[in-house]
Amino acid sequence: MTAKEEDLAAALAREIRAAVLETAAEPAPRTAEPAGDDGQEIRVPLRRAEEYVTPTVPDAARLARAKSLALRALRFLWRDQTSFNALLIEASNGILAALDRNHAAINRIQDLANELARLQKASERRDSAQDSRLAHLETLVTRPPASPTTASAAEVDPLPESVYALFEERFRGSFAEVTDKQTFYLPFLRDLPGPVFDAGCGRGEFLKLLADRGIPARGVESSGHAVRAARAAGLDVREGDAIEALSAEPARSLGAVVAFQVVEHWPAGAAFRFLAAARRALAPGGVLIVETVNTDSLAAMNAFYLDPTHVRPVPSEGLRFLCEAAGFRELSVEFLSPLPASERLAESSENDARLNALLFGPQDYAVIGRVPRE
Asked: What is the DSSP track for 297-351?
């Protein structure tokens, strides 16, 4: 070998050694961690390692062709190491991906925890507001009734009881008719947490329905004539004011409070006092049923003004609102007592149906609600 060839071989060997040394594992310079990427200090060395798994010679390097041939010829010397390095990098990337997933899961759990804390605080605020409102309602139901000097003219000079008894006898309907209508409410009074209180029970039609089914119940009625008739039928009925009697019931002692065709006889303030008293007296899970005239039906409103003791009509949405304000939940409005087909318009179009609903709709409705269970 000539001296020139020896020099060339020595130079080539130095270049190969330098290329191999570049592939050796070196501690990568530590870079600043960008905000928001916790794995950056791992990603940078991995990217650098991937560049050296298989050493290459840049095309612009000195003696690039000869170096590339030498590297390929000598690759078998480090192929096991290269395979190991590639597998190690792949495993590291898998670990990094798992860490990313764990980090995302931790962030999601933290978000859920924050949302749960927010909802808990909101619930505590609602509970506090509800407790305050219920405390206010309890002061309302224990407030003494208004003195005669501030009572309305209707309260000071009521219609004689004997006259109103004759009116009810003519227009209320028979005992059997009223009983048949009120059968609708029996499914709402299953598994009650206490007895039923019937406010303004009249002749006791609903109390008789309950007694026949073994459901304990008692009623309060202001008409002495009706009370005597109910007692004669063996029913537990007391004469008096329904709101005062309900306010005297122990708290959480009743399973249901019902009032059929009663709230329209009271001013709005008295109706709310009654609802507040019912809310206090009912046990958790107890039921409220309040039936009155359907103000959305013109035919029903004609019947409303027929009764001389009616004070004000009560629209369904207004009564529902008062029940909600008194603390009742799961509220629904049930319309009943439809007029027979002979008293309604024959329907041949959608407009006919709308006109029927406006003029000849159901005569009554009831708001039904519950005391929340604990």
From this structure: -HHHHHHHTTSTT------HHHHHHHHHHTT-EEEEEEEE-PPPGGGSPPPSSHH
pLDDT tens for 287-344 read 999 999 999 988 888 888 888 888 999 999 999 999 999 999 999 999 998 888 888 8
With beta carbons less than 8 A apart as the criterion, state whether 285 and 371 touch: yes
For residues 117 and 113, give the distance between their C-alpha atoms in angstroms, rounded to a whole number.
Answer: 6
CATH topology of domain 142-370: Rossmann fold (3.40.50)
What is the reported pTM? 0.59
Q: 299 Cβ partners below 8 Å, 6+ apart? A: 339, 343, 359, 360, 361, 363
Closest by CA to 326, choosing from 136, 193, 195, is: 136
What does the domain layout of the chain look like in residue ranges? Answer: 3-25+34-110, 142-370
CA 236 to chain centre: 39
Give the number of other CB atoms < 10 A from CB of residue 336.
15
Each residue's pLDDT tens digit, 176-192: 888 999 999 999 999 99
